[in-house]
């Protein structure tokens, strides 16, 4: 089973990376870019076929490791 | 969005950490009910973190003056003359609470904050240290905190580009619920180009510099003044994120700006950002300040006045500008990609006025905001003097095993895992990197001068006897600087304690400061800056009292500097400063604690006159160039000091123990004011003679050589085994 | 030797590099700001270490796209010696002047320590002051020094003698393929390396093993 | 207009972070995790309403900056 975990910064948390990318896109001549926020994805391969269990597992992985829940949100999708 | 017209209820007042009598005082100052924004401003100015209301009375007792002191406490950092028109600017500050909540960002922004304090004064940062305390290694949170804090310190300092040359790491169950992150920074400036925060001149532009304002840390300074409880998670949204890239640009832009002559006054935005910085600049200059918040660069929509005034977004500064330089100043900031906005002006009415969307949301007397802050002489209970160990209470253990066990223990193991994550040599001036007694950085542009840095405190001593512990922290810092050949110049202190509203804690605090003061006076080592962190307490259990001392010393000629590694085989090892018959003091020692699980007895007393006499003598030997290696003796006593010198060089040593003494106290006693030193053998007798003449007890204890550490008949361990033990604990612990 | 140091916001070993070039060549390098589109006439252009643009996005990615880098690429094409150290190496990769990529260290941690380097090719503009296969000391300080290239590229680099330096004696600090610490372009006039020779050039640094790189360039320029 | 750009490592490119996360998940007791690959997302806000143009712009941004096409693939989605 293949799943994708997406981790993004919570609203209002400063994103220095996004800010720097915004600036660089401007320098490169891309007009009309409002804002950029950077996040992470984890493509995880899981053994087994029970999607409900997999989802629960992935959420636990996010809480424990993949996301820093103090400043980040996460979501789980299946391919 | 938070409105400005909330009714001011007793609950709202309480939730701002203001006590009823403090609110009464506010009413007296304003003569009316404060607006919501004004309440926020008061709470920020009057919390413990900004107002020092519990500690001020005691801080005033510290010696802060000295021949070389240019600027003592009261500015962003202390300033000390090092001759030739140069000065060193330094301070230490805590970021304890934020680091416990989000270790990476908490530590990172702690480093960012202290660097800003230093370069706000016109100094280019040249050295950083970090003094860290964590809970017991087995506590479920500890590993996560260590990993995050260390990565955060490195993440910020490395990218900013300052070498981290020293620090401390300790573990103790008493820090389980409150880790400590004390960050130190030092910079170099010209004595005739120091910048201060005092505003001058009426009607001059007040300029906002650096990064944009978000909602980060709204209420952060208030958080730093509150005890934790189990609901800590609710406090999370206030976490600030550091941006070392912006800070590096801000450094370069500020230094260019200062060189351009545009700056009348400048102040970084730290705790309670815009509020504290603006009030401080105005009040110091006897001027009012008017701010128009519509001009503040913001990165979020619909920010209220309250939020803007309390935001703790990082990498920001406030300055009073020489108006004719506006264009030049703005061009500098544009070049570095930073915000530059005129957000207000200085006035002659001594009011602090805030305009937002055309409405005056605050109008307060600016001086009273600081001057009238509450100040408490909190009740305190004198700490009980500990009962000394009985003279015949000398628990025995196998010596070789004990040495190996201590070297591989959490508190004594090598810190390489930590400091290899820090850039310790950027700048190309690091002469001694972490691992020795003090970090040493050469003074750029001078052919021979260098500065030494050390950060020290022994919390278990402070817990047993806060007065002696306070003295010892200063003495150990002074000793570490001396051991490189440096003349200790001045110090900064970071006083981490529990809840000052508990009389026992207040008693500890007062006693520790008295000890620090006494030691600083006796050793000629004034305190020029510092920081107090109280309420380090969880569910009613306080941390160990931890008054960290960060010291700076001057080495006139670094080619004669001393290091801890043995320089060669066949050299004579001398032991200085021990009492007749060798060390005796086992109370509160590492040996007692980590080998026998005992935390009893009194800590070793510090005889300051002895400390000074021995230290001054060591410094003379080092500067004459006769000392080939030097190490002070601290935790773990003679045995660990000698082992550390051997490990640093890969060379063994053979020591002879005096006849008829019990080797345990001799090897593991922690009597203060002692050093180990090596010389070429032909110098030994002459030096011993000189020491005797100077009234210093000194003895020849052995010779360097081989690849084994031999301690008389008591122990014999290969340097390889010592090193393996010493290096193993941290990496294997962090692997989990 | 005339040299120039490229300055970009966030670089922070520029002062170290300027000091080293001045001390070894006896002549202070010129500096070139990121927005400049023309370079001074020099023998050697150096991109120093640091965290250009915070190393946000990818190390060196944003810097590589700034105007000055087009000028650097042109100079390289003309045969001017170009050296990128640490972040400078990452920038040269991102700018396409060198092949491969530098990934996060295998430890995932920043690492600052001294390592051993083997001079894998002593017959280059940057290494001729060293003996073939000489092993030197050199400090590293980086978070992303884990060299990666696809098998074909790697084979070419090896086959054409374009690996200039290799971590030696089991001191690879980052997991780099084939222990690669520094590589050259096809023409041999562009060098990228992770370690910091500029931090080991005088007694105060505890040694001068790093001098050879600058002295080699000096010989070429003479 | 809001778009999400996802950048992932090409097959065969070493992913030290993914590897380390795999290991850490194992240590934390999550069984059945086959492999983890880490990537990035960029949430970009764009002015204008022409999705086709936006998509072309975003691809250009990826080619020029957001992705290192030597080692990375990218994809563009609209919210
Ligand atoms: N423990 C202390 N000893 C001496 N001075 C102190 C101490 N704590 C704070 N200070 C001084 O009080 C002033 C205010 O401190 P602080 O609010 O921490 O500074 P900042 O506003 O730069 O963050 C500073 O000048 C600081 O040096
Ligand atoms: Mg300050």
UniProtKB/TrEMBL annotation, chains A, D:
Keywords of the record: ATP-binding, Cytoplasm, Ligase, Nucleotide-binding, Purine biosynthesis
EC number per UniProt: 6.3.5.3
GO molecular-function terms, A-Z: phosphoribosylformylglycinamidine synthase activity
Matches recorded under Gene3D superfamilies: Phosphoribosylformylglycinamidine synthase subunit PurS
Pathway this chain belongs to: Purine metabolism; IMP biosynthesis via de novo pathway; 5-amino-1-(5-phospho-D-ribosyl)imidazole from N(2)-formyl-N(1)-(5-phospho-D-ribosyl)glycinamide: step 1/2
Coiled coil: none
Reactions listed under catalytic activity: N(2)-formyl-N(1)-(5-phospho-beta-D-ribosyl)glycinamide + L-glutamine + ATP + H2O = 2-formamido-N(1)-(5-O-phospho-beta-D-ribosyl)acetamidine + L-glutamate + ADP + phosphate + H(+)
Top-rank EC class of the record's enzyme: ligase
Subcellular localization: Cytoplasm
Family, per entry: Belongs to the PurS family.
Subunit structure: Part of the FGAM synthase complex composed of 1 PurL, 1 PurQ and 2 PurS subunits.
NCBIfam families: phosphoribosylformylglycinamidine synthase subunit PurS (TIGR00302), PRK05974.1 (NF004630)
Its biological purpose: Part of the phosphoribosylformylglycinamidine synthase complex involved in the purines biosynthetic pathway. Catalyzes the ATP-dependent conversion of formylglycinamide ribonucleotide (FGAR) and glutamine to yield formylglycinamidine ribonucleotide (FGAM) and glutamate. The FGAM synthase complex is composed of three subunits. PurQ produces an ammonia molecule by converting glutamine to glutamate. PurL transfers the ammonia molecule to FGAR to form FGAM in an ATP-dependent manner.
Identification of the protein by name: Phosphoribosylformylglycinamidine synthase subunit PurS
UniProtKB/TrEMBL annotation, chain B:
Subcellular localization, as worded in the UniProt entry: Cytoplasm
Keyword Metal-binding tagged: yes
Active site residues according to the UniProt entry: 49, 95
Catalytic reaction(s) noted: N(2)-formyl-N(1)-(5-phospho-beta-D-ribosyl)glycinamide + L-glutamine + ATP + H2O = 2-formamido-N(1)-(5-O-phospho-beta-D-ribosyl)acetamidine + L-glutamate + ADP + phosphate + H(+)
EC number per UniProt: 6.3.5.3
Database matches in Gene3D superfamilies: PurM-like C-terminal domain, PurM-like, N-terminal domain
Stretches assigned to the Phosphoribosylformylglycinamidine synthase linker domain: 16-53
GO molecular function annotations of the record: phosphoribosylformylglycinamidine synthase activity
Subunit details: Monomer. Part of the FGAM synthase complex composed of 1 PurL, 1 PurQ and 2 PurS subunits.
Name of the protein in question: Phosphoribosylformylglycinamidine synthase subunit PurL
Originating species: Mesorhizobium liriopis
Taxonomic lineage from the root: Bacteria, Pseudomonadati, Pseudomonadota, Alphaproteobacteria, Hyphomicrobiales
Gene from which the chain derives: purL
UniProtKB/TrEMBL annotation, chain C:
Keywords: ATP-binding, Cytoplasm, Glutamine amidotransferase, Hydrolase, Ligase, Nucleotide-binding, Purine biosynthesis
Presence of the UniProt keyword Membrane in the record: no
Alphabetized InterPro entries for the sequence: Class_I_gatase-like, PRibForGlyAmidine_synth_PurQ
Entry-linked Pfam families: GATase_5 (PF13507)
Subcellular location: Cytoplasm
Enzyme nomenclature, EC number: 6.3.5.3, 3.5.1.2
Catalyzed reactions per annotation: L-glutamine + H2O = L-glutamate + NH4(+); N(2)-formyl-N(1)-(5-phospho-beta-D-ribosyl)glycinamide + L-glutamine + ATP + H2O = 2-formamido-N(1)-(5-O-phospho-beta-D-ribosyl)acetamidine + L-glutamate + ADP + phosphate + H(+)
UniProt pathway: Purine metabolism; IMP biosynthesis via de novo pathway; 5-amino-1-(5-phospho-D-ribosyl)imidazole from N(2)-formyl-N(1)-(5-phospho-D-ribosyl)glycinamide: step 1/2
Residues annotated as the enzyme's active site: 86, 196, 198
Subunit description: Part of the FGAM synthase complex composed of 1 PurL, 1 PurQ and 2 PurS subunits.
Function: Part of the phosphoribosylformylglycinamidine synthase complex involved in the purines biosynthetic pathway. Catalyzes the ATP-dependent conversion of formylglycinamide ribonucleotide (FGAR) and glutamine to yield formylglycinamidine ribonucleotide (FGAM) and glutamate. The FGAM synthase complex is composed of three subunits. PurQ produces an ammonia molecule by converting glutamine to glutamate. PurL transfers the ammonia molecule to FGAR to form FGAM in an ATP-dependent manner.
HAMAP family named among the record's database cross-references: PurQ (MF_00421)
NCBIfam families in the cross-refs: FGAM_synth_I, PRK03619.1
Protein name in the entry: Phosphoribosylformylglycinamidine synthase subunit PurQ
Species name: Mesorhizobium liriopis
């Amino acid at each position: 089973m293949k799943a994708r975990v997406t981790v993004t910064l919570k609203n209002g948390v400063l994103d220095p990376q996004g800010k720097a990318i915004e600036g660089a896109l401007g320098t490169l001549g891309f007009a009309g870019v409002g804002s950029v926020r950077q996040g992470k994805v984890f493509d995880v391969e899981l053994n087994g076929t029970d999607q409900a269990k997999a989802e629960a597992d992935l959420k636990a992985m996010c809480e424990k490791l993949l996301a820093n829940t103090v400043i980040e949100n996460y979501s789980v999708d299946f391919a | 969005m938070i409105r400005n017209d909330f009714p001011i209820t007793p609950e709202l007042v309480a939730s701002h950490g203001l006590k009823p009598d403090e609110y009464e005082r506010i009413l007296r100052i304003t003569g009316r009910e404060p607006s919501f924004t004004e309440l926020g401003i008061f709470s920020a100015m009057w919390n413990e973190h900004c107002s020092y209301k519990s500690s001020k009375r005691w801080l005033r007792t510290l010696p802060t003056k000295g021949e070389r002191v240019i600027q003592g406490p009261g500015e962003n950092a202390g300033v000390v003359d090092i001759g030739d028109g140069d000065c060193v600017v330094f301070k230490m500050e805590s970021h304890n609470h934020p680091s416990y909540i989000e270790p990476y960002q908490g530590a990172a922004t702690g480093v960012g904050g202290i660097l800003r304090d230093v370069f706000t004064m016109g100094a280019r940062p040249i050295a950083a240290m970090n003094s860290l305390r964590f809970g017991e290694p087995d506590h479920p949170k500890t590993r996560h905190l260590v990993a995050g804090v260390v990565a955060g310190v490195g993440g910020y300092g490395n990218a900013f580009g300052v070498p981290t040359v020293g620090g401390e790491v300790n573990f103790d169950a008493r820090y389980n619920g409150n880790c400590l992150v004390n960050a130190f920074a030092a910079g170099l400036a010209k004595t005739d180009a120091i910048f201060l925060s005092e505003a001058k001149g009426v009607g001059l532009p007040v300029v906002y510099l650096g990064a944009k304002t978000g909602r980060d840390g709204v209420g952060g300074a208030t958080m730093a003044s509150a005890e934790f409880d189990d609901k800590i998670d609710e406090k999370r949204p206030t976490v600030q994120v550091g941006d070392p890239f912006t800070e590096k640009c801000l450094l370069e832009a500020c230094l260019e700006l200062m060189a351009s002559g545009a700056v009348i006054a400048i102040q970084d935005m730290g705790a309670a950002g815009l509020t504290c910085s603006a009030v401080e600049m105005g009040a110091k200059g006897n001027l009012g300040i008017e701010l128009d918040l519509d001009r503040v660069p913001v990165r979020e929509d619909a920010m209220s006045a309250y939020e803007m005034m309390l935001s703790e977004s990082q990498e920001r500064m406030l300055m009073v500008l020489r108006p004719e330089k506006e264009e030049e100043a703005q061009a500098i900031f544009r070049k570095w990609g930073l915000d530059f906005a005129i957000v207000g002006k200085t006035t002659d009415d001594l009011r602090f006025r805030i305009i937002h969307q055309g409405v005056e949301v605050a109008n307060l007397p600016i001086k009273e905001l600081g001057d009238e802050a509450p100040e408490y002489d909190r009740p305190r209970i004198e700490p009980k003097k500990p009962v000394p160990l009985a003279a015949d209470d000398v628990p025995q253990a196998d010596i070789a095993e004990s040495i190996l066990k201590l070297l591989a223990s959490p508190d004594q193991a090598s810190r390489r895992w930590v400091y290899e994550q820090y850039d310790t040599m950027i700048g190309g001036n690091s002469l001694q990197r972490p691992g020795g007694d003090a970090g040493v950085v050469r003074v750029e542009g001078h052919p021979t001068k260098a500065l030494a840095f050390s950060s020290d405190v022994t919390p278990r001593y402070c817990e047993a006897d806060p007065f002696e512990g306070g003295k010892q922290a200063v003495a150990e810092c002074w000793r570490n600087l001396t051991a490189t050949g440096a003349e200790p110049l001045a110090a900064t202190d970071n006083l981490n304690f529990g809840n000052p509203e508990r009389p026992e804690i207040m008693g500890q605090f007062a006693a520790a400061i008295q000890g620090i003061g006494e030691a600083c006076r006796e050793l000629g080592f004034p305190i020029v800056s510092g920081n107090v962190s109280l309420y380090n307490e969880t569910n009613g259990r306080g941390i160990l009292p931890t008054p960290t001392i960060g010291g700076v010393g001057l080495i006139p000629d670094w080619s004669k500097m001393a290091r801890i590694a043995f320089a060669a085989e066949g050299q004579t090892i001398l032991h200085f400063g021990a009492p007749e018959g060798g060390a005796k003091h086992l109370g509160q020692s590492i040996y007692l604690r980590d080998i026998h699980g005992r935390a009893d007895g009194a800590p070793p007393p510090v005889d300051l006159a002895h400390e000074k006499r021995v230290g001054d003598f060591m410094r003379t030997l080092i500067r004459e160039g006769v000392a080939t290696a030097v190490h002070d003796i601290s935790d773990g006593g003679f045995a660990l000091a000698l082992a550390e010198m051997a490990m640093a060089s890969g060379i063994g040593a053979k020591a002879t123990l005096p006849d008829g003494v019990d080797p345990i106290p001799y090897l593991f006693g922690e009597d203060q004011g002692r050093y180990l030193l090596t010389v070429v053998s032909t110098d030994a007798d002459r030096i011993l003679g000189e020491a005797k003449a100077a009234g210093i007890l000194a003895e020849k204890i052995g010779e360097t050589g081989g690849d084994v550490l031999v301690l008389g008949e008591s122990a014999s361990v290969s340097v390889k085994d010592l090193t393996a033990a010493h290096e193993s604990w941290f990496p294997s612990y962090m692997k989990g | 030797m005339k040299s120039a140091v490229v300055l970009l916001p966030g670089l922070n070993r520029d002062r170290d590099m300027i000091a080293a070039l001045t001390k070894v060549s006896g002549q202070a390098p010129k500096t070139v700001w990121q927005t400049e589109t023309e370079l001074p006439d020099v023998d050697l252009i150096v991109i120093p270490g640091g965290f250009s643009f915070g190393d946000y996005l990818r190390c060196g990615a944003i810097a590589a796209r700034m105007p000055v880098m087009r000028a650097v690429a042109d100079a390289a094409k003309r045969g001017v010696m170009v050296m990128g150290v640490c972040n400078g190496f990452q920038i040269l990769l991102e700018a396409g002047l060198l092949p491969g990529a530098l990934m996060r260290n295998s430890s995932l941690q920043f690492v600052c320590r001294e390592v051993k380097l083997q001079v894998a090719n002593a017959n280059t503009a940057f290494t001729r002051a060293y003996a073939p296969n000489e092993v030197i000391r050199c400090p590293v300080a980086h978070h992303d020094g884990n060299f990666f290239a696809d098998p074909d590229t790697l084979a070419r680099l090896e086959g054409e003698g374009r690996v200039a330096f290799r971590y030696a004696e089991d001191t690879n600090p980052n997991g780099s393929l084939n222990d690669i610490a520094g590589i050259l372009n096809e023409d041999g006039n562009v060098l990228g390396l992770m370690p910091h020779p500029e931090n080991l050039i005088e007694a105060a640094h505890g040694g001068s093993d790093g001098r050879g790189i600058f002295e080699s360039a000096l010989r070429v320029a003479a």
